[in-house]
Amino acid sequence: MTESTSPKHDSPEQATLAESTGAPPKHAASGESLLQVEDLVMEFPVGKGGLFRRAQETVHAVAGVSFDIKAGETLGLVGESGCGKTTTGRAVLQLHRPTSGSVKFEGRELTGLSANEMRPIRRDMQIVFQDPYASLNPRWTINDILTEPFEIHGVKNIDTRKRVGELLELVGLKPEHRNRYGHEFSGGQRQRIGVARALALNPKLIVLDEPVSALDVSVQAGVVNLLEDLQEELGLAYCFIAHDLSVVRHISDRVAVMYLGKIVEIGPRDEVYNNPRHPYTMALLSAAPEADPNEDGMRERIILTGDVPSPINPPSGCRFRTRCWKAQEKCAVEEPPLVDMGGGRLAACHFPATDLATEAAAAHAHRDKVQPDLLATQLTS
Ligand SMILES: Nc1ncnc2c1ncn2[C@@H]1O[C@H](COP(=O)(O)OP(=O)(O)OP(=O)(O)O)[C@@H](O)[C@H]1O
Ligand code: SF4
Ligand SMILES: [Mg+2]
Asked: Region annotation Disordered: residue ranges (predicted)?
């Protein structure tokens, strides 16, 4: 990534959001637990066959995930497409009503709250979406977009004109941009507007769902730096969802790795990245372009066999077992719990990974063994 867009602290006149509200910052002290998620389950019934048949199957999109986020902290959430990252983020915000499990925000249980009861809490928990093109109403000016949160939440006695100007400055745009429409901005600028909207009500937690994935690499760094600056200034906590492992590594304090609806490894960023213990984490990291080459300039890569199974009918025991080179009988019958693997990190595996060279060799041998079988099955089926 290269820097391109302007940082937000260009001008000394730029006001902080706290100044704009006239209120002192309301955030919990950094390090205090803000969000606690326990055994969160999100299932979607889906129809089978024709249009009017009854729902007969269930997508197990999120299958019992637990994590917490502290005030001022960034938790990165990574994993392949379809593993349940967005669903987790939305269920945390109660945009999907969880099937079961607990979501506590500042100690208050959110599951089961009515829409009215949730409304004041929504001010503190915001979301930024992946697609900056789809997320801004094309018929609205930026002013309309940024004043909407105040209208929805009935915030009165506020100088919205002043606040919109300050929000735009906070994200590195100009107050005079307020009368333009979304299509007049670049992707990076649109995402800055999305961030400004999320900041409008001075939240404590923002779920950032792939906030830079749709942007050119050249403007990603500007938006990531902006998010970091805002976090420092406003004491925000982030749940940062992304495919891009290098961006997650850059921004996260802790990282959670998901596979087929489960968190398979979670812990401090450097522990997870430098010394992964779950075979899936190791495979994912080894395949990332930024993985460190070894002394010979070669990179050990673990190439997984097979596809991700359907979340409608996930494998028994360990969900990763159909692609894992270390799988044994126990893996099919006993679901591995997340256990302490040292260094503040938890991983869910009966036979944790050792070092990359050993595991890559074992994975390679496993592939050579199962690949002809796979091919034969495909040819005969
Ligand atoms: N409303 C829904 N109804 C049925 N299935 C859904 C629904 N929303 C998500 N799913 C399914 O749940 C699973 C998890 O989806 P989700 O969007 O959370 O994954 P993701 O990790 O965010 O993927 P991506 O990286 O592609 O954004 C997928 O199999 C998806 O098809
Ligand atoms: S529990 Fe078994 S199948 Fe699952 S990741 Fe560990 S070794 Fe592989
Ligand atoms: Mg997603």
From this structure: 1-30
Nearest CA to 62 out of 251, 304, 268, 319 is that of 319
How far is CA 85 from each of CA 38, 79, 211, 262, rounded to the nearest angstrom?
A: 15, 7, 13, 10
Closest CA to 41 of 63, 19, 57: 63
**CATH dotted code for 17-252:** 3.40.50.300
Ligand 3 centroid from CA 130, angstroms: 8
**Is residue 204 within 8 Å of residue 237, measured between CB atoms?**
yes
Q: Is the CB of 89 under 6 A from ligand 1?
A: no
| All structural domains of the chain with their residue ranges | 17-252, 257-380
Give the tens place of pLDDT for each residue, 162-207. 999 999 999 999 999 999 999 999 999 999 999 999 999 999 999 9
pTM: predicted TM-score of the whole model, two decimal places: 0.89
Q: How far apart are CA 223 and CA 238, in angstroms?
A: 14
Ligand 1 contact via 214 beta carbon (within 6 Å): no
Least distant ligand from the CA of 327: 2
- For range 198-221, the mean pLDDT: 91
CATH topology of domain 257-380: Rossmann fold (3.40.50)
Which residue owns the Cα nearest ligand 1 atom 3?
44
Stretch 332-356: mean pLDDT = 96
Residues 6+ apart with CB under 8 A from 128: 191, 194, 195, 198, 206, 207, 208, 209, 211
